[in-house]
Design brief:
- The structure is a single chain.
- The chain contains 2 helices and 6 strands.
- By secondary structure, it is α+β, with helices and mostly antiparallel strands.
- The protein has 2 domains: 43 residues; 86 residues, Sandwich (Immunoglobulin-like), CATH 2.60.40.
- It has a 3-stranded antiparallel sheet.
- Strand 1 and strand 2 form a beta hairpin.
- The longest helix has 30 residues.
- The radius of gyration is 26 Å and the shape is elongated.
Length: 138
């Protein structure tokens, strides 16, 4: 009854549905494009900022203090600011500090340096991370 020429003339020809195979191919292609775009955005944002950080270690001397160790890579003449977080078991921020790291004396080009930041926390921390770093405007 749905293939009736009278119904097709009145309501139009029904559209063909995608096959399961075609739908799977489209989904996989969309996911691949999304992953590629996310990777490209991550790469360009870190390359554009000119500063890169890497978490190295974390310790808690007591329930009210935390120490975060990280490596910072930047141009030797630049000044960077890094936001450091101490996190609770529920991933809540229990300590926060912005650390300014000035130019490296006698350095040239891109340099990597290790830093330790001591934080006061409002409760026991179970991890510490560098949330982000950026170059300070001159």
């Amino acid at each position: 009854m749905t293939d009736s020429p009278a119904l097709a003339a009145r309501y139009g020809v029904p559209r063909r549905r995608l096959t399961k195979r075609t739908a799977r191919i489209l989904i996989v292609a969309a996911l691949a494009v999304a992953v590629a775009v996310a990777g490209w955005l991550t790469y360009t944002s870190s390359a554009r900022s000119g500063v890169e950080s890497k978490d190295v270690g974390f310790s808690t001397p007591d329930a009210w203090h935390a120490e975060i160790d990280f490596q910072l890579t930047k141009n030797a003449s630049a000044t960077a600011v890094c936001a450091v977080h101490a996190l609770s078991g529920a991933y809540a921020v229990v300590g926060y500090k912005e650390v300014e790291i000035g130019p490296d004396a006698g350095g040239s080009g891109t340099t990597a340096s290790l830093h330790r930041v001591a934080l006061r926390t409002e409760s026991a921390a179970v991890s510490g991370v560098v949330d982000s770093c950026w170059l300070k405007a001159s």
